[in-house]
Amino acid sequence: FHYLLPVLLLLSAVLVLVSYLLFPGELIPAPTGVFDLSWWQIALVGVALMFPAALLSGMLFPSIVAEVQARVSDRMNSTGITTLCNTTGAAIGPLLASFVLLPGIGFQSSIIICAAAYALLSILVTERDLLRFVRKLAPASLAVVGLWAAIILVLIFFPYRRSEVHFEHASRVYERDNQGEVMARVVKRMEGTADTWQLLRRDLVGEPYYYRLIANAFSMSATTPRSQRYMRLFAYLPLAFRPESNDVLLLCYGCGVTADALLHGPNVKRMDIVDISKEVFAFADSYSTIDYHNPLRDPRVHTVIQDGRFFLQASPRQYDVISGEPPPPKVAGSVNLYTQEFFKLMENRLKEGGIATFWLPINQLKVEEAKAILHAFHNAFSNASVWASADQEWIMMGVKGPGRKVSEEELRQLWSRPDSGADLRRVGIEVPQQLGALFLMDGEEIDRITNDVAPLTDNYPKRLTDAGWDEEATQRFALSYMETFPALQHFIHSPLITTIWPDTLNKSMEPFFVVRESRYLSDTIGSNKLQELDLYLRDSRLRIPVLEVLGSDAFRVSIAERLARGSETPPLEIMHDLIAGALAHRDISGAIRLLENLQDRGAFVLNDTLLLTYLYCLNGNVDKAEALAANNARSIEKDSFVDWLWEKLKTDFGFHPPW
């Protein structure tokens, strides 16, 4: 058995490389929701990557003990010496891998170095009689020579871009659409001590449109227009109801969207940002969208690389505003950031009258699980409420104490300031009434719906299960708070709203609840887009709903308008954004000219024909609408939507359909 040790070491080196090269990562799809891997999937990837090397490492230990016994004079101590060295290595190895190798050279190079270390150890244990050992041509010596040849060949022909396959597998679901077309690309990658991070960027005609930050295979944050709305509301809700706020705390940085909004507070003098991952802060200079400013460069900002819960326990400072948007509740290790005890820590760190906001993604939870978190939050904050736009990204807000009524003048300050005003209008909160129309429920309603649901606590984390959510049940639950009349009644009769909301705005609230309901229904069950557009154009002055129903947003329009100013013929890719922008400004004639230009360039589709027909009528050119409809009658299929449109135009404008 004297020559068994080098054989085992070389075999370990080969299997470390081969296990990595044959790792079946593609068999498990990258998660896009909760981490719902079954036990056999975890076992499969664990066995494929770790079992061969782990098995041989276990065989190495008695072989090393035997070798030590043969070489030391005191054989009684040989096992103890070997165990001491093994234990020391086991303690140092993870530290070296986590804090030196992975962040320094990456996981693939670390694996290659591990394999090389096994191979070099085989030389050390046979160094004294290596030549004699090889000349014997014994089976063991032939095995050593063969294994060395295998290692050299593997290293020569090693696919050093193999790591790109694994990175691409993790990001593919966010890079491509359902048809496989590339939407975004990786612009930066970073391997940290605990996670692998990738930053994706999606462009619009070569201009950065939004970014997405992925940890391992999970989207942790993004600057999409929809994401920016609720992320910025984490800041603007408490700033609206406590405009005198000086000290603010942000738990989890993400892409910096909430941090940027918090700095727009008129009286903010200090902001502490706590995140457990230093890599998140390192990405802050990598974003380059329109009007983006790195919040970390603001002198009022102080960053802390620390666990948010520990920071709340250890910090003596109290804050006017605390906002938290940790990873989703079902991501491993996150559940204790959604418990009653954690929310109580937040409440303890608030000044009297201070406000906390926290993320509640009901679209990633079962209804009962969302209620468990709501119950936990309300147990920590007696003055609790829930707010949301036309989506399922809900915001829990807790006030320490009764709160105070803000005046209409104080509330309008956020819209009158250039930075916060532009910010709010860009994400679709265009007037103060829309902020009030985000209201869903107060503490009384939370008590009612969570009465038979136990709160999520540290001692009972499995009240959040590993199962996925019921999308239909979640939609029904959310819709009950989005419907206009019940929502308006909740708002008017809420003791919290009576306490904090200016009464002078109450009479003008209903249209904004109508808009929220229509947008929610459109996104969840679909809608007649032209009917929805007609509602917004003729019964509202809001811009963002018009953009959204036409498949655009303020960020796309900003890019499109900037490109159009520098081009005599705007690219076709931005024409529909320009049309949406014109209609958002109620420039009907301008939208008509853009559609006619699109028609002249041969890029006219059926939806453009129907939209232009409608706009001709809306602009008083019924004869042009009739001519356009008649010329395209063969391409217009008769269905319920077309029947509705012809009847609508006939009733409202005297239009004569082509059939």
CATH architecture classification of the largest domain: 3-Layer(aba) Sandwich
CATH topology title of the largest domain: Rossmann fold
What is the residue-averaged pLDDT? Answer: 91
The count of domains is 4
Q: Note poorly predicted spans.
A: none
- Structural class assignment: alpha/beta
Under the CATH scheme, which class of the largest domain? Alpha Beta
- The Rg value, from CA coordinates, equals 31 Å
In terms of DSSP E residues, the strand content is 5-15%
Count of helical regions: 28
Helix content percent band: 40-55%
Query: How many extended strands?
Result: 12
Q: Walk across the major sheet and give the strand order.
A: 7-6-5-8-9-11-10-12
End-to-end Cα distance, whole Å, is: 95 Å
What form results from the Cα inertia axes?
globular
Molecular structure report:
- The structure is a single chain.
- Helices cover 54% and strands 12% of the residues.
- The protein is globular.
- The chain is α/β, with parallel strands linked by helices.
- Helix 1 (4-21) runs parallel beside helix 5 (139-156).
